[in-house]
Amino acid sequence: MIGRLNHVAIAVPDLDAACAQYASALGAKVGAPQDEPDHGVTVVFIELPNTKIEFLYPLGDDSPIKGFLEKNPAGGIHHICYEVDDILAAREKLLAEGARVLGSGEPKIGAHGKPVLFLHPKDFNGCLIELEQV
Ligand code: CO
């Protein structure tokens, strides 16, 4: 069921500084910031040869990233995203296996314009997992 690693998301306390560092020190191809009001984040994608890095920065007062950055002021890995072919089939299988889907349980449209779901980190070794249908 699980497919490729789509991206690793890093919450950053200073988006401009993080972009400048990846562009300059790492020579990375850094995309333009995109506001995602439905998710309470501003995202920047960095293209690597085999996957992407997603910078997450809080957008709005009830951003889910705000609390994360309060606990991790220097930033940190926030989630990893795996690709699936059929997100509803993946959800049914995971629910049957006892995993918890966050929020309403219905897929939302993620930063790439594709349906995504998040799985409870306590069910996955402390790691928040995003599934994206590709
Ligand atoms: Co993501």
TrEMBL record:
Its EC number is 5.1.99.1. GO terms for molecular function: metal ion binding; methylmalonyl-CoA epimerase activity. Keywords: Cobalt, Isomerase, Metal-binding. It is an enzyme of class 5 (isomerase). One of its GO terms (biological process) is L-methylmalonyl-CoA metabolic process. InterPro entries: Glyas_Bleomycin-R_OHBP_Dase, MeMalonyl-CoA_epimerase, MMCE/EMCE_epimerase, VOC_core. The keyword Isomerase applies. It catalyses: (R)-methylmalonyl-CoA = (S)-methylmalonyl-CoA. The keyword Metal-binding applies. Residues 4-134 form the VOC domain. Belongs to the methylmalonyl-CoA epimerase family. This is methylmalonyl-CoA epimerase. It comes from Octadecabacter arcticus 238.
